[in-house]
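Sample pair:
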Amino acid sequence: FPVTITTPDLNTNASIECIQTGKYLVAPVRSGIMLIDLRRALERVLYDESIAAFVKHPLHTQMLLFPMERALEKQEIRVLQSHLGLFEQLGFKLELQESTLAISGAPEILHEEGILGCIESLIVRLEMQDQQREDLAHILMVEMVRSSVKHYPFGKKLEMQQLIEQLFRCQEHHLSPSQEKIITIVRHEDLHQFLR
């Protein structure tokens, strides 16, 4: 599918044809072939959108048709009690009932299958962290975005085109929020080496 990419580092401002191969997008550019890791690209786009919203107001919550419950250890209860406001800011609707956590709502970027795993990851991160609120927000947002992307179905051309366009509007479009490369250019000279 064609995507118009406007970015000086790729020396192009034209429509280029992309091919989706599993979790990667492949596109020819002047200097060779560009590979885009779709999961990392989605992490970057979701992170940028979510962190901007998080700073201004709580993230949008999707109420659950059937609330979820999870038994908690004593340490987990302490972590949740001390960070309940942060979970609400992230878009969770939680209630502690003795040693049980009742979840009635979750951030809309999370798929239902990923909610419990995301909460577990966030609790683990909070147990390990003694950070400033800004650093903590970044760390928790990265965990939440990763949980969301795990259950994202890639495949529709229009969605992929929108994702790539959104990615190149991000200031840090080369790196995921966890500092992993999103885009790699395999130069023509390097391609020649593969075919020897």
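The radius of gyration is 20 Å.
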